[in-house]
């Protein structure tokens, strides 16, 4: 069975909740990513408390008239983060992303530590064209 660990992009990066959004944007640029999981810096296991995207920074910080060097990642991330176990099946990954209409899904290990990220591009390598078309239709509807 193909698992989330098999399809995720490993070596992904995260940002502590107390780090500023200008630093988050710099990390996104350096690593060529559009999203970063946000971790609790006070938790020794660095558990995820949210996720921020480049769009979040632009729309909810810059366009709202805030200074990215004065707003933290923890202040920007909202709601309960969605994630998937590294042991989950591809069907479980698809269901989580489709049900919540999300395009990026953090992957955690058995200790709830962030270990990777699954994006649409990662799924494209493992799904048939029909499966991918159905996924895109459900996520963007």
UniProtKB/TrEMBL annotation:
Residues 8-69, 76-134 form the CBS domain. SUPFAM superfamilies: CBS-domain pair. It holds the Pfam family CBS. InterPro entries: CBS_dom, CBS_dom_sf, Diverse_CBS-Domain. Keywords: CBS domain. This is CBS domain-containing protein.
């Amino acid at each position: 069975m193909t698992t989330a660990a098999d399809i995720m992009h490993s070596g992904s990066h995260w940002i502590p909740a107390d780090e500023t959004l200008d630093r988050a944007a710099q990390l996104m640029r350096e690593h060529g990513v559009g999203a970063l999981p946000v971790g609790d810096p006070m938790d020794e296991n660095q558990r995820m408390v949210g996720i921020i995207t480049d769009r979040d920074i632009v729309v909810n910080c810059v366009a709202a008239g805030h200074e990215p060097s004065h707003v933290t990642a923890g202040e920007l991330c909202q709601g309960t983060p969605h994630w998937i176990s590294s042991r989950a099946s591809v069907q479980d990954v698809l269901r989580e992303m489709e049900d919540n209409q999300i395009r990026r899904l953090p992957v955690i290990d058995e200790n709830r530590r962030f270990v990777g990220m699954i994006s649409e591009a990662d799924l494209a390598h493992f799904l048939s064209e029909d499966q991918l078309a159905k996924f895109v239709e459900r996520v963007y509807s």
